[in-house]
Each structure stands twice: as C-alpha cells, then as structure tokens.
Amino acid sequence: MGQPQQPDEAEGGSAAERPSLGVGMVGYAFMGAAHSQGWRTVGRVFDLARRPVLAAVCGRDGQAVRAAADRLGWAAAETDWRALIARDDVDLVDICTPGDSHAEIALAALAAGKHVLCEKPLANTVEEAEAMAEAAEAAAGRGQVAMVGFNYRRVPATSLARKMVAEGRIGALRHVRVTYLQDWLVDPEFPLTWRLRKETAGSGALGDLGAHIVDLAQYLVGESLVGVSALTETFVRERPLPGGATSGLSAVSSDGVGQVTVDDAALFTGRFTSGALASFEATRYATGRKNSLCIELNGEKGSLAFDLERLNELSYHDGTEPGTHAGFRRILVTEPDHPYLEAWWPPGHGLGYEHTFVHQARDLVNAIAEGSAPVPSFADGLQVQRVLAAVEESAAKNSVYTPVVV
What we know:
Keywords: Oxidoreductase. One of its GO terms (molecular function) is oxidoreductase activity. The chain is an alpha/beta fold. The chain has ten helices and 16 strands.
C-alpha cells in the first residue's frame, strides 16, 4: 500500500522553498495548545502552497508565556498583543483569548494588514461581532482573510454528513436535534474562573458550547436559524474565588466567593428557513458527560447521526430501502476519499480531536494562498452571535415560572 506524500516529496518543490506564512498567536492555554498542535503539524501532513511558521506567542505573564513558547514550539514570546501584531514576521494573528478581547485584537490586526483566525464565539456581543464582520469585509478587499474557529466542521464525519445532505441523500429536512453535554461544573466548589463571568466570557454554556452546536447545525443543514424559544438556568450562583483573587469582579462577598453571572445550561428550540424544526441543549451540568456532542438530522428520505465520542463514524439510515432490512448503518469515515483523509493513515486508522485543528489550519492556509474567502467567515460568526443573543432574549422573557403544587 502506498504511503501519503510528505510536503517535501510532493510535486511543487520542497516545503522550505515555499513562501512562509508567519503565525502569531495570542493566548496559550487550552485553545492555544490545540491551535499550536494544528500549526506545528499541518505543513508536515498536507501539501500547502504556504509554509506556516510559528513566529511568536503572546501572553501577559512573561515567564509563563516563554515557557509556553518552548513547550508548544513557538520561536518567540511577547507580553503585549500589540507588539505581536506589529512584528514583521507575523502575517496571521490567531486569537485564542477570552471573548472580551476578541474584537479589540481582531480589529487591530485587520487594520495592520494581518490575516486573522479568531476562536469562537466571535465576540461577546452582537455589536462587537458586527464591527468585526464589517472590518473583515473591508480587509477582504485588501487581500486579507478572516476566519472563525468552529473546529467541529473539520471532523471528517461531519464534513461527509454535510456533503450527503447537500447531495439530497436524506431529502427535505424535517428535524434536527443537538446536545452538547459536559459535567465540569457539577462540583459547587469549583472556582469562579473567567468562563463563569459575563464580563469576560459573554455567556456560559450558551456561548461556550451552544455556539458550537448552532454553527454545526447550520453548517450541516445549509440553512440559518430564523427563530428560537429558550430557557436558561444557573444552578450554582456563587463560587469560591481562585486563589482569593478579586480583580475585575463585579460582585464579591466577604467570605471569599463571587457571583456566577452566566448560564450553566441552555435549552432552546428553533426553526430553519425551510421550516425544519430543531432542538438544542447545552449544559456543563450533565453528570458523567465529559464532552458529549451528538447531532441527528431527520429528512423525508433518511437520517444522519453523529456522536463526537465516536468521531470516526457517521450513522446513516436510507429511508428508501425496504423496511425488511432497513436501519441505521455505520459508515467508518477513514477512507482516503473521505474529507481531509487523503493525507492521513490507511483506512481504519482513526483520527482524534486534535486533527480538527490541523484541518482548520489547512483550510485557512489554502484560502490565503488562493485568495479565496474562508469558511466559516466573520459574517458566519456574526450570524451565530445573533442566534445566541436571540436565545438570551427569549430566555429572559421565559425566566418567570410558577412551580406546580400537587
């Protein structure tokens, strides 16, 4: 069996001869580590027209960011994101910070002539997202690209599902149901991190998890949500401060706890432009669920289902087959002609979560090299932001309830 060509073996010359693409990344925690994995690996797997170079990583703590640079493979470290943007060896700014700084960094990077990759959700407010989308559109006229990091689009199985929907394999869509379940907040003693503060995170499970499933559903369906009805809840409203810190907190009690100002769970229904119905659940309180994302699409001619915990598989039911032997069947998405898999391992050798960031980097580098519009664009991120805002507005209207006494 032949092996995939490495970049320096493929037609078009060695990787070292190709124009470089200097990447500067702001933030180096969970998402920063995942993005670093993508940038380190992509040029060693895929045949790219530009050669990504990990030029510099940025963080506020000088000692910590230098250690992160060494650990994650970055050539230099900065403690001011403005200095990172100003570097001549940075062509693309990758934003992996909390949501409250996305807009400021992205707008400055675009104004400086840089390409931009911004983690989801695009911003903390619709107004910020609108400004970012407008700036990205203007920058596109100057040859710059701007993309949002919705990495679950880059799972080969979900990309295959999108292709099958577009081909009409399940016919006219009737239902979509999506859940994204985690349990890392079940312990009430878990500290009040930035993800639990509205001023930094924008929202809770809604923005953290809900943004992913809204984008994934719209991507698979190929339509936008046009209406929602929602409920949200915060189960634990006060949490201990991490290390006794109080900086930036709007509400701190004398006993070392602060208020949780975001949602812990969000439930909402929706309708797509075609009239298809959808239900969504995003929670960080599903005890026993670590990172469970499931989506199912039901159409007039069939159904598709995906489970992130089985990410190399796609379930497909062909409703046109005779009932005597019809049913869901497993598609093992590891063939070389499946999305993204032409450069990876032989069939049956599965990929993992980290590969979605490699694929994300590949698509962005290709868009830059080709001068094409990347997806999801900042306009796509804005559309998701509008859905999240509509969910919050609906939940606020539905927040008053009277318990039924039996």
